[in-house]
Design goal:
mainly alpha, Rossmann fold, DNA Cyclobutane Dipyrimidine Photolyase, subunit A, domain 3, 3 domains, globular, binds flavin-adenine dinucleotide
């Protein structure tokens, strides 16, 4: 079939990346408002699907979300053009093919995204075309904040206050119609997503995301402030995946939750996401290096203790609350924030293993795996991050379990070997006598492991190592 190459200077590419929605999409809206042809594009970069940090579960979500986006675009008279390859080659080649002078996209903050966008912008410019980056990933852009052009905020509370003082842009509707694609324009096939790689995956795509948001605002949000730290069935929004892939914009989540009077704590958590994204924007090196480098030397590489690493990763540390979290992560690609802190603390404090090992493991498995938030959460818990969690504050997983899973319902769900253990010992089953273990149907060191680390001794070792590093 002949390809229509009569594109006018008015032809624009709306390049989707992790903004896979039609509502509240400034770059797409602008592309349409320009009045010429619009070609919605997604580039399937092999680095994205098969790179060293690629994730089976997020590959599945991405492919299904792209299929949903294509259907949504078709319903409005257009469609999604997929091209395989490296963006710095594919985008300029498509622009030349269809005669597009302009490429519009949503600005992203990760080091990869920034390198990519610089390369694409340079390649386009060499051909007299241009890349325009627009808002949409964040509530507030770095330049909106006082001092935003400098190194940014290193402490959350002032960041929170400053972000609350910034006027939000107007929420945009989804376009009703989008100009048709040029005749004969090729789209590469979307690889088959295959069966869901883990259990309980939420339906990908914008329509399902908007339903999730609506259910959340009308349901669990009212209890979020009091109950969000609970481990068993805590009301949290589970919108991390939608915020990562951009099936919801943060502004649409914030605006929808404003209607619920008890939403203050929830909106504050949304600003933690902002905080970590701004930090990464100002300090790209944080993706690999801690905010407080003086402590990095306390951590050991995997080779120093592979047995501990695998016991942690596979949920067989013998510490119930840790094993429950790690097994929930493997089975479903998600675990509650409180559990993330507890397991990360055990790895980086009691076991003194490098936070970057845990960060990469989470990044492979989480449905909401997100570089800025994940690095932020890991550095915070490991005691090498920004303001909070100073080096001498170390989570006790037994006390955490007793406080946030008091009846042990969550532990029993994910660690069925402990189903018969009485509530009083569910978070420290090693405290049961041999006779009590028999009565509970568990054998510590047999059907369930003995703890891989003595919690008191591990804590002391970590305190000593961090103290030495803080003085050194
Ligand atoms: C070690 C560790 C690793 C983490 N890794 C990730 C990650 O890869 N991706 C990720 O999105 N979050 C991460 N978090 C933050 C937090 O645990 C998750 O955002 C949250 O549990 C996701 O569930 P939810 O969508 O139901 O969140 P909700 O509690 O409903 O919160 C709504 C949204 O606010 C944002 N948010 C909430 N808490 C935080 C926080 N502490 N930091 C940054 N953003 C936050 C997220 O976008 C979240 O989806 C991590 C936390 C820790 C301690």
């Amino acid at each position: 079939m002949e390809i229509d190459t009569t594109g006018t200077p008015g032809t624009a590419i709306a390049w989707f990346r992790r903004d896979l929605r039609l509502h509240d999409h400034p770059a797409l809206t602008e592309a349409i408002r320009r009045g010429g042809r619009v070609v919605p594009l997604f580039v399937l970069d092999p680095a994205l699907l098969d790179g060293p940090r690629a994730s089976t579960v997020r590959r599945w979500i991405l492919l299904r979300t792209l299929a949903a986006l294509d259907a949504d675009l078709r319903a409005r008279g257009s469609g999604l053009v997929i091209r395989h390859g490296r963006p710095e080659e594919v985008v300029p080649a498509l622009a030349a093919e269809i005669g597009a002078g302009t490429v519009l996209a949503t600005r992203d903050v990760t080091p990869y995204a920034r390198r990519r966008d610089r390369a694409v912008a340079a390649a386009l410019a060499a051909d007299g075309r241009s890349l325009h980056l627009r808002r949409g990933l964040l509530l507030v852009e770095p330049e909106d904040l006082p001092g935003g052009a400098g190194i940014g905020y290193a402490v959350f509370t002032p960041f929170w206050r400053a972000s609350q003082g910034v006027d939000r842009r107007t929420l945009l509707d989804a376009p009703e119609r989008i100009p048709p694609l040029p005749d004969g324009l090729r789209s590469d096939p979307l690889p088959d997503a295959g069966p869901p790689p883990v259990a309980d995956l939420a339906e990908p795509g914008e329509a399902a995301a908007r339903e999730r948001l609506e259910r959340w605002v009308g349901g669990g949000l009212a209890r979020y402030g009091e109950e969000r730290n609970g481990l068993a069935g805590a009301p949290t929004s589970r919108l991390g995946m939608d915020l990562h892939f951009g099936t919801l914009s943060p502004l649409s989540v914030e605006s929808a939750s404003l209607a619920e009077s008890a939403s203050g704590e929830y909106r504050r958590q949304l600003v933690w996401r902002e905080f970590y994204h701004h930090l990464l924007w100002h300090r790209p090196a944080l993706a690999r290096e801690p905010f407080q480098p003086r402590f990095q030397g306390v951590f050991r590489p995997l080779e120093a203790d592979p047995e501990a690493w695998w016991a942690w990763a596979e949920g067989r540390t013998g510490i119930p609350v840790v094993d429950a979290g790690m097994r929930q992560l493997s089975a479903t690609g998600w675990m509650p924030n409180r559990a993330r802190m507890i397991v990360a603390s055990l790895l980086t404090r009691h076991l003194l293993l490098d936070w970057r090992l845990g960060e990469a493991h989470f990044q492979r498995l989480l449905v909401d795996g997100d570089l800025a938030n994940n690095v932020g959460g890991w550095q915070w818990t490991a005691g090498v991050g920004t303001d909070a969690q100073p080096w001498f504050r170390i989570f006790n997983p037994v006390l955490q379990g007793e406080r946030f899973d008091p009846a042990g319902a969550w532990v029993r769900r994910w660690v069925p070997e402990l189903a018969g253990v009485p509530d009083r010992a569910i978070h420290q089953p090693w405290s049961l006598s041999a006779a009590e273990q028999r009565a509970a149907g568990v054998a510590i060191g047999g059907s369930y492991p003995a703890p891989i680390v003595d919690l008191a001794a591990g804590r002391e070792r970590a305190l000593a190592a961090f103290k030495a590093a803080s003085e050194g």
